[in-house]
């Protein structure tokens, strides 16, 4: 498999297959939302779009990064989301890096959103589809976020079938700037367990596939065994 690792700003053309990686925290949070029963996640282009969707669909659950804000039901924290009941819910997510990265490749034939918690399921789907060329979008820090790059490189190795010891990849993520900022309370809307939850390798058995459902970009869980979008795990 030919793997490229690019920051969002480096995406010059639409890739065929894109794996958008945000370990801390957007796609760890998305996986937890599905584990807690969410049916789908709408990836919002902006805070204003998220609020407009909420106005049209008051029952949808709005989620943003940073501190709590009016019009948003919750924040971008796996530690806070892990006890939420989202059964059958539609979540609207807007974050600084992860959702922006997914929307940047929305025209790609296959878009997977990934973090360590869904690493093996993501790699398995890439193997099953026999994707010859994969663009990994390293969403944080203009493509230099160590936690995202480490996760992307780990998934790429597993997707090519190589036996891979995850220890060093997880160590790099655990010593990243994002991990330090979360641990030090620099990032708002956080829980003390967020870093540990973001480093749980293969916590969930499903991959996450994003696709245009005009006019929205919608993320859904993809359980390889069922061959269709569904996540059976309740996450606890
Ligand atoms: O919520 C996060 O951890 C970040 C926000 S920031 O990097 O602190 O600005 O958003 P994400 O898109 O999940 O990386
Ligand atoms: Mg991030």
TrEMBL record:
Its EC number is 3.1.3.71. It comes from the Bacteria. Its cofactor is Mg(2+). It catalyses: (2R)-O-phospho-3-sulfolactate + H2O = (2R)-3-sulfolactate + phosphate. Pfam families: 2-ph_phosp (PF04029). InterPro entries: ComB-like, ComB-like_sf. Keywords: Hydrolase, Magnesium. Belongs to the ComB family. This is Probable 2-phosphosulfolactate phosphatase.
């Amino acid at each position: 498999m030919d793997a490229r690792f690019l920051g969002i700003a480096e995406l010059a053309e639409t890739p065929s297959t894109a794996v958008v990686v945000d370990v801390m925290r957007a796609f760890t949070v998305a996986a937890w939302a599905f584990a807690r029963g969410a049916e789908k996640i709408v990836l919002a282009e902006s805070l204003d779009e998220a609020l407009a969707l909420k106005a049209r669909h008051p029952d949808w659950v709005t989620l943003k990064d940073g501190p709590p804000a009016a019009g948003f039901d919750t924040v971008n924290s796996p530690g806070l989301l892990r006890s939420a009941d989202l059964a059958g819910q539609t979540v609207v997510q807007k974050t600084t890096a992860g959702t922006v990265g997914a929307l940047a490749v929305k025209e790609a034939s296959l878009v997977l959103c990934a973090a360590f918690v869904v690493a093996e399921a993501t790699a398995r789907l890439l193997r099953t589809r026999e994707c010859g060329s994969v663009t990994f979008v390293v969403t944080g820090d203009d493509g230099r976020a160590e936690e995202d790059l480490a996760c992307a490189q780990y998934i790429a190795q597993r997707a090519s079938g190589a036996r891979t010891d995850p220890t060093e990849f997880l160590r790099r993520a655990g010593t990243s700037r994002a991990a330090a900022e979360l641990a030090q309370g620099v990032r708002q809307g956080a829980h003390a367990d967020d870093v540990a939850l973001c480093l749980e390798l293969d916590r969930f058995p499903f991959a996450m596939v994003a696709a245009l459902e005009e006019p929205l970009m919608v993320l859904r869980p993809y359980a390889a065994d069922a061959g269709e979008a569904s996540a059976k795990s309740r996450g606890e």
